[in-house]
Amino acid sequence: MPFNLKQLLDQIAAGNLSAAQGAEQIAAEMLAQPVEDLGFARIDHQRAQRQGFPEVILGLGKSPDQIAAIAQRIVARGHTLLVTRADPTAYAAVQAVVPAAVYHDIARAITCRMHEVTAGRGTIVVAAAGTSDLPVAEEAAVTAEVMGNTVDRLFDVGVAGLHRLLREHDRLRSARVIVVVAGMEGALPSVVAGLVSVPVVAVPTSIGYGASFHGLAALLGMLNSCANGVSVVNIDNGFGAGCISSLINHLD
Amino acid sequence: MPFNLKQLLDQIAAGNLSAAQGAEQIAAEMLAQPVEDLGFARIDHQRAQRQGFPEVILGLGKSPDQIAAIAQRIVARGHTLLVTRADPTAYAAVQAVVPAAVYHDIARAITCRMHEVTAGRGTIVVAAAGTSDLPVAEEAAVTAEVMGNTVDRLFDVGVAGLHRLLREHDRLRSARVIVVVAGMEGALPSVVAGLVSVPVVAVPTSIGYGASFHGLAALLGMLNSCANGVSVVNIDNGFGAGCISSLINHLD
Amino acid sequence: MPFNLKQLLDQIAAGNLSAAQGAEQIAAEMLAQPVEDLGFARIDHQRAQRQGFPEVILGLGKSPDQIAAIAQRIVARGHTLLVTRADPTAYAAVQAVVPAAVYHDIARAITCRMHEVTAGRGTIVVAAAGTSDLPVAEEAAVTAEVMGNTVDRLFDVGVAGLHRLLREHDRLRSARVIVVVAGMEGALPSVVAGLVSVPVVAVPTSIGYGASFHGLAALLGMLNSCANGVSVVNIDNGFGAGCISSLINHLD
Amino acid sequence: MPFNLKQLLDQIAAGNLSAAQGAEQIAAEMLAQPVEDLGFARIDHQRAQRQGFPEVILGLGKSPDQIAAIAQRIVARGHTLLVTRADPTAYAAVQAVVPAAVYHDIARAITCRMHEVTAGRGTIVVAAAGTSDLPVAEEAAVTAEVMGNTVDRLFDVGVAGLHRLLREHDRLRSARVIVVVAGMEGALPSVVAGLVSVPVVAVPTSIGYGASFHGLAALLGMLNSCANGVSVVNIDNGFGAGCISSLINHLD
Amino acid sequence: MPFNLKQLLDQIAAGNLSAAQGAEQIAAEMLAQPVEDLGFARIDHQRAQRQGFPEVILGLGKSPDQIAAIAQRIVARGHTLLVTRADPTAYAAVQAVVPAAVYHDIARAITCRMHEVTAGRGTIVVAAAGTSDLPVAEEAAVTAEVMGNTVDRLFDVGVAGLHRLLREHDRLRSARVIVVVAGMEGALPSVVAGLVSVPVVAVPTSIGYGASFHGLAALLGMLNSCANGVSVVNIDNGFGAGCISSLINHLD
Amino acid sequence: MPFNLKQLLDQIAAGNLSAAQGAEQIAAEMLAQPVEDLGFARIDHQRAQRQGFPEVILGLGKSPDQIAAIAQRIVARGHTLLVTRADPTAYAAVQAVVPAAVYHDIARAITCRMHEVTAGRGTIVVAAAGTSDLPVAEEAAVTAEVMGNTVDRLFDVGVAGLHRLLREHDRLRSARVIVVVAGMEGALPSVVAGLVSVPVVAVPTSIGYGASFHGLAALLGMLNSCANGVSVVNIDNGFGAGCISSLINHLD
Amino acid sequence: MPFNLKQLLDQIAAGNLSAAQGAEQIAAEMLAQPVEDLGFARIDHQRAQRQGFPEVILGLGKSPDQIAAIAQRIVARGHTLLVTRADPTAYAAVQAVVPAAVYHDIARAITCRMHEVTAGRGTIVVAAAGTSDLPVAEEAAVTAEVMGNTVDRLFDVGVAGLHRLLREHDRLRSARVIVVVAGMEGALPSVVAGLVSVPVVAVPTSIGYGASFHGLAALLGMLNSCANGVSVVNIDNGFGAGCISSLINHLD
Amino acid sequence: MPFNLKQLLDQIAAGNLSAAQGAEQIAAEMLAQPVEDLGFARIDHQRAQRQGFPEVILGLGKSPDQIAAIAQRIVARGHTLLVTRADPTAYAAVQAVVPAAVYHDIARAITCRMHEVTAGRGTIVVAAAGTSDLPVAEEAAVTAEVMGNTVDRLFDVGVAGLHRLLREHDRLRSARVIVVVAGMEGALPSVVAGLVSVPVVAVPTSIGYGASFHGLAALLGMLNSCANGVSVVNIDNGFGAGCISSLINHLD
Question: Residues 175..194 of F with a Cβ closer than 8 Å to E: which?
Answer without folding.
Answer: 176-177
